[in-house]
Amino acid sequence: QSALTQPASVSGSPGQSITISCTGTSSDIGNYDSVSWYQQHPGKAPKLIIYDVSNRPSGVSHRFSGSKSGNTASLTISGLQAEDEADYYCSSYTTDSTLVFGSGTKVSVL
Amino acid sequence: QVQLQESGPGLVKPSETLSLTCTVSGGSISRGASYWSWIRQHPGKGLEFIGYIFYTGSTYYNPSLKSRLTISVDTSKNQFSLNMRSVTAADTALYYCARAMGIGTSVDYWGQGTLVTVSS
């Protein structure tokens, strides 16, 4: 089970928008609309911020949005804020009936 | 509000079995479509799915770990457990128990994680 591919790091200035990609295969992202995104601050457990490609759980800022095209999913953070500095992980359902996570992206706010 | 708490030894010797238990509170482990999950994170690294179990006992494991894993559930205690056999230093990680809303879906509740070190 290979991890989904994410860029190691993405950075942006406050107020800007950034996009994190998550590339899989036809055995995971390309075959299911069950892509999730998680935010993890240092020393904390991950927090769900997007589920089923583009849905936000209650309480998650509208600045987070998700999409998918083919084997690649994307997370966009608009109006970047200092508190968005964290690690971000994608995940997808797989043909093995399991989950696979992305390699993780460190977001820095300049 | 569902809460999860991991428990178990923080130090395991190489070649032995890592055993962790997750106690669920704030909801029944037997209700709904939830899959009760184990996920780990190697120090400074990303998340790795280990496996999950439905309250009926149906399990799904990461294929790369499957030969060493057993996940079980005790509905009477509202707990589920992880046994990983023949551990090596490569199994040193922060182990999270968590709830997936359904099979293959998002993980909405996480425990705080417990660090397990494999060392003699």
Descriptive terms for the model:
heterodimer, A: 110 residues, mainly beta, three-stranded antiparallel sheet, globular, B: 120 residues, seven-stranded mixed sheet, four-stranded antiparallel sheet, 11 strands
State the end-to-end distance of chain A.
Answer: 34 Å
Which residues of chain B form runs of ≥5 with pLDDT under 50? Answer: none
Strand content of chain A: 35-45%
Which structural class is indicated by helix and strand composition of chain A?
mainly beta
N- to C-terminal distance of chain B:
39 Å
Number of strands of chain A: 9
Protein chain pair with the most extensive contact, residues per chain: A-B, 26 and 27 residues
Overall pLDDT score of chain A = 97
* SSE string of chain A: EEEEEEEEE
Task: Please give the number of β-strands of chain B.
Answer: 11
Helical content band of chain A: under 10%
Radius of gyration of chain B over alpha carbons?
A: 13 Å
Shape descriptor of chain B: globular
- Major beta-sheet overview of chain A: 6 strands, mixed
Number of helices of chain A: 0
Radius of gyration of chain A, in angstroms, nearest whole number: 13 Å
Major sheet details of chain B: 7 strands, mixed
- The helix tally of chain B amounts to 0
Structure explained in plain terms:
- The complex is a heterodimer of chains A (110) and B (120).
- With 110 residues, chain A is mostly beta strands.
- Chain A has no helices and 9 strands.
- The N and C termini of chain A lie far apart (34 Å).
- The mean pLDDT of chain A is 97.
- Chain B has 120 residues and is an all-beta fold.
- Chain B contains no helices and 11 strands.
- Chain B has strands at residues 3-7, 11-12, 18-25, 35-41, 47-53, 59-61, 69-74, 79-84, 93-100, 107-110, 114-118.
- In chain B, strands 2, 4, 5, 6, 9, 10 and 11 form a 7-stranded mixed β-sheet that branches. Chain B has a 4-stranded antiparallel β-sheet with strand order 1-3-8-7, with no helix packed on it.
- The radius of gyration of chain B is 13 Å and the shape is globular.
